Amino acid sequence: MKCRRCKDKGISSKAIIFLPHHNLSLCKNCFGEWYEYRLRQTIKKTRMFTPGEKILVAVSGGKDSLALWYALKKLGYKVDAVHIDLGIKEKDYSLISREKAENLGKRIKSHLHIVSIKEHLGEGIPELHWLSGRSPCSVCGLVKRYFINLIAKKGSYSCVATGHNLDDEVATLFSNLLSWDVDLMIRQAPVLPEKKGFARRVKPLVRFTEKEDLLYCLIHEIDYIREECPLARGTSSLLYKRLFNEVEQTSPGSKLRFYFNFQTNLRPLLPNKSTARLKSCPSCGQPTTSDNLCAFCRLKERVRSVEAQKKQKQLD
Ligand code: Q46
Ligand code: ZN
Fold first, then answer.
1. Taking ligand 2, which is a single-atom ion, which protein residues have CB atoms under 5 Å away?
2. What's the gap in Å between 265 CA and the centre of ligand 1?
3. In a structure prediction context, what are the per-residue pLDDT tens digits for the chain, which is 316 residues long?
4. pTM
5. Ligand 1: residue whose CA is nearest its atom 3
6. Ligand 2 mean position, distance from CA 78 (Å)
7. Which residues fall within 8 angstroms of residue 294, CB to CB, at 6 or more apart?
8. Counting ligands in written order, which one lies closest to the CA of residue 233?
9. Residue 194 CA to ligand 2 centre (angstroms)
10. Which residue among 231, 236, 237, 241 is best mutated to probe the pocket of ligand 1, counting the most ligand atoms within 8 A of its Cβ?
11. Ligand with smallest separation from the Cα of 301
């Protein structure tokens, strides 16, 4: 298979990938250029941010967020990153993830903020899951949102960019559709504008599949953590991704149509019932819909009281 872009320029080169949903075969160089062009276009068209704005990329150590950080830096955006060390010991998941993020930061000379959950809360995500009674991903999401927002505010970043790709967004949309969760569907957009106390949130990789992010990492020798998060085992999003991969195989372009037709045809018609007013948490000052402590401070209180009970038992 030959690269179609090179062929158009009268050059013959071997393609390394065929993208059925774009009916496009590309060589290594052309794929990198195509990815970066498409990324820049997505940012521009959806008005995610301008080249002068200060962007904070949330990096997990996985392929998507590292590809995003690398590509934005290469394209000349003003970009720093933040990594939340989740304290997941199984398979050294957090240790390896952190290393991958730190290594890329050094390589591309971009500043990386590191926040260790254990240092702040005394426990990692697996323990917080047991202590809070929330699912691992729910408590993880709460803690990540809290710290990422805090760093964005402190560092005066105008927006937070995450590495959610098309496969992630399609799986989430499908899950929200299965339960007809209109409130969550309304909030599912490539750009979520700034709200009192919350930085703007953007997803510049929404037009790329996992496979495309992976290939971008491979051709730029970006080293990322290969392991899936051990706490993701059995989550329904993995099942939905497998399902949509099958649909995509028989009908290329389905993922793009499913997500972007929702954005243009249905999302604007959904009633925005969210009347919840944001207040400031009396303890940490972060925005919350609660009249009392925010969910993060409540979690902190819970950890403190369980620790105190443990100590008391030891003394008794
Ligand atoms: S890291 Fe956290 Fe993910 Fe692991 S615990 Fe769930 S949310 S799966 S992006
Ligand atoms: Zn609080």
1. 281, 283-284, 294, 297
2. 30
3. 899 999 999 999 999 999 999 999 999 999 999 999 999 999 999 999 999 999 999 999 999 999 999 999 999 999 999 999 999 999 999 999 999 999 999 999 999 999 999 999 999 999 999 888 889 999 999 999 999 999 999 999 999 999 999 999 999 999 999 999 999 999 999 999 998 788 999 999 999 999 999 999 999 999 999 999 999 877 789 999 999 999 999 999 999 999 999 999 999 999 876 656 788 999 999 989 888 899 999 999 998 888 888 888 887 7
4. 0.94
5. 137
6. 30
7. 146, 281, 283, 284, 286, 287, 288
8. 1
9. 19
10. 231
11. 2
139 alpha carbon to ligand 1 midpoint, in Å? 9
